[in-house]
Amino acid sequence: MVKVEKVAGVRVDRTRNGICITGPVERTMVAEAALRGLWHGLQRGEGCTMAQVDGALRFAEGEQEPRLPLRDLPQIRTRRGTVAPRSPAQAAYMEILGKHDISFGLGPAGTGKTYLAVAQGVAMLMAGTVSRIVLSRPAVEAGERLGFLPGDMKEKVDPYLRPLYDALNDMVPGDQLTRRMSAGEIEIAPLAFMRGRTLANCFAILDEAQNTTPAQMKMFLTRLGEGSRMVITGDPSQIDLPNGQPSGLVEAVNILQNVPGIGMMRFSETDVVRHPLVGRIVAAYNRAEERAEPAQHTRRGRGWAGEHAGPK
């Protein structure tokens, strides 16, 4: 209740027959919508964690009448439980994942774009809709190179793929995950291993796609086989490729954004569902970059004029 009161700016009191919300009309509507959403979650057997309270408040704050009634929001069911959206953007993304053969999730870290894609893949595998899941990432991170890391190829690659393992561990019981990975039903591999393959009857996810080259992105997209789905996730503002190397994700979004059968969801810092500070950090960096861009344009403009103005 304290969280709802603080965020909504109202007072919530328990009464004999329920609760009483006191405050400005618009804010009481926000609090009521959030509490109703939490109640519907409890009726579905969900818990009431702080993360779920944050999610209910996001929906209520986003629109006083959400795009969907909170009881009708999309859900992804896995053996470990139900994965529900924690923001209106996540709800829209989950609908895209359910409808399109190829989906793009674009935006900053902490928006759930990869986690929800893994949840959708696990749900489809458990339901028998696909026969396997293939998870991939380019092995490019903050200027490091695989050759500098100790160990064999698996030991070199695993640190880059750890976020995918973490998401799987949240959704698939440990013994079952080990068994399915041994049987090849769940495969995690670096992007370089995808060349020459056809991904048929599978759910394929390419994570951190901003670090692909245009050639790598085209190669991955054209692996799509019969009965398969693909999800490509990444943050175009966090490219770790060498200077001057164009991002395959940025190019693909520009080329494919109006192609039928391809869905795209763009998240912003307001959709971050990690610690509240993460969203504020992303917003602060975005503001700093926006302030820096005019200065860079001004410097480039002056340099060009100085070089090409000719004799006075």
UniProtKB/TrEMBL annotation:
Q: Provide the protein name.
A: PhoH-like protein
The region annotated as signal peptide is: none
Q: Tell me the organism.
A: Rhodovarius crocodyli
A GO molecular function annotation here is: ATP binding
Domain PhoH-like protein span(s) in chain numbering: 83-286
Q: Gene3D superfamilies under this entry? A: P-loop containing nucleotide triphosphate hydrolases
Q: Quote a single Gene Ontology cellular component term.
A: cytosol
Keywords of this entry: ATP-binding, Cytoplasm, Nucleotide-binding
User: Pfam families from the xrefs?
Assistant: PhoH
List localization entries: Cytoplasm
Q: Which protein family is it in?
A: Belongs to the PhoH family.
Is the keyword rRNA-binding in the record? no
Q: Where is this region: Disordered?
A: 290-312
Under the heading InterPro entries, the entry gives: P-loop_NTPase (IPR027417), PhoH (IPR003714), PhoH2-like (IPR051451)
